[in-house]
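Exercise 7. Predict the structure of GreA/GreB family elongation factor from Pseudomonas vanderleydeniana.
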Amino acid sequence: MDKQAIHQRIIDTLAADLDVLQRAAQTAYEAATHEENVAENKYDTLGLEASYLATGQARRTEEIRQALKRCRELPLRPYDEQLGIQLGALLTLEAGNGSEQWLFLAPDAAGLKVDWEGRPVTVISPRSPLGQALLGKVDGDEVQIAVAGVRQNYWVTCVS
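Solution. The predicted structure, encoded as tokens:
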């Protein structure tokens, strides 16, 4: 597992997402402020709808900008078994049914998936139940979380 390369792929994906969203937000802003979208009566809501869209996109743009900043600032340290899993860890989890998933523990950007050598790597944060349960665990440890009232068991099979 090449933690540095996966970390860079996460940063590149966030940067590309930010670029696309900034352009979409600018387009929505222009639509919201265009003179043709000024309401002619109380039922004419095109300008109002465009302004809601622009506001939502601006918020999402800021969320991605902050996630990108935090991921860029994340120091990647070698795995230390004394500390266990910490921010910046790349790990694999195995479920009871034998399925395996690769995870990258980041300060933000939870849910983002990047492809690495044909495998999906999912970004999780320590704010998630799984992220919280993983902190401090070491290779071989069992992790239990409850999802919708159902207890799920995983085993840490590799950490870097």
